[in-house]
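Quick illustration, no need to memorize.
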Amino acid sequence: MPAKTSQIASWFAKMSTSWDADQERLPQMISSEDVAERQRLADLKQFRKYLVETGTVQCLVKMYKHSAKHEMRIDNPSLVTQFLAGYTDGNPDAEEIQTLQRENATLEEYNAVMESQVKDLQHQIARQKRRNLGRGIWRRLSPDSEADLSLDELFIRLCGNEVEPSTGEVLVDLLRPQTYKDIDLVTATRVSEEDFIAIVGDMESERHVSWLEELFARLQDSESGEAPYQRELMQAIIDSDLLPHDTFLLADAVELDENLVAFLEVVAAGRKDKGGKQFDTVISTFLTEPSEWASPCQGIWSASVFSSKVLCVGFGFSPAFLQVDCARK
């Protein structure tokens, strides 16, 4: 029994000595802060290596040189983006980038050409629609497919020539625009279907086209052989209370639709490519809001030449042409 006790004590003594030796052989404990710092330094070393291998350091050095040489504002917020946009050194995709940039520039030019072509086609389509509208108006003004119409016939087909019973006169003739009052001239002056359609095709303003569409609708709704403005004008003449003795005052009391007057004057002036700029002058003058017209005292006049006479447009009185002698002008 004593022998066993001594063996156990000897075993415990050896065990204690071995434990101490093991403790001495273990590495020293490292704090979590030290571990994190070592990892940060290792990551930073790897990042620096990455910057060198990818050429980023070289890029940053060149950017610094560029800014020191060319950039006046160090605080320029777009400095980096501007430099990097044109930097290709060391980039393995630089050649592909340049190729794509050239292709992009080519496509942009092609896109601009295509957009221009689209606008031209849209313009041609719109013009063809206006020409079709003009053809429809002509066929209703000239249902018998006559080769041409005189200016006098055109006015009659639009405004009528009904004889007023109490006076026995065609009172609508008193409302004619100045260029349509010379019966011999407007009878001799003829408009062909081709020229009429071309005139309508040249009317590009949305306002003008809208009025032409309204005219076409009037022609469609009018009874066979009746002028689209005849009833309206005859009613206005009756409502003026000037019949039957004061008909000489009708021109001041009753006015033609300003759009109708402008259209008649444009047709009389002729096509844009034949008659110069009468089309633009007449249309822009007559198709103006009444509130925008100047007063008579301002003396604002615009002129165009028609049949060796000066046609002056006076603002303030009414949208009508006033014909004056060239010598007085």
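Residues 152 and 182 are 9 Å apart (CA to CA).
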